[in-house]
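Customer escalation, tier 2.

The customer says the design service returned an amino acid string that "doesn't look like it belongs to this structure." They asked us to rerun it and document both sides in this ticket. The original structure tokens are below, unchanged.
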């Protein structure tokens, strides 16, 4: 079975907001005695996501 990947571009604030939201989801799963493995993996992916500098196309147009 093949899965498609989705790529998100987030600034630092959005990334922190996503991590906090996932922590809240994890906490609610713990309170309901639900599984947290999938949420844990996603938290690690968001935290460890590679950083990229934003490309500036306007600088290249001036050349």
């Amino acid at each position: 079975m093949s899965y498609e990947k989705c790529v998100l571009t987030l600034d630092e604030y959005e990334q922190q907001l996503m991590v906090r939201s996932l922590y809240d989801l994890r906490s609610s799963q713990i309170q309901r005695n639900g599984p947290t493995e999938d949420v844990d993996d996603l938290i690690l992916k968001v935290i460890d996501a590679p950083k990229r500098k934003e490309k500036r196309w306007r600088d290249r147009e001036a050349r």
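Tier 2 assessment: The sequence is consistent with the input. The chain has a mean pLDDT of 90. Residues 19 and 45 are 10 Å apart (CA to CA). Sent an explanation to the customer and offered a walkthrough call.
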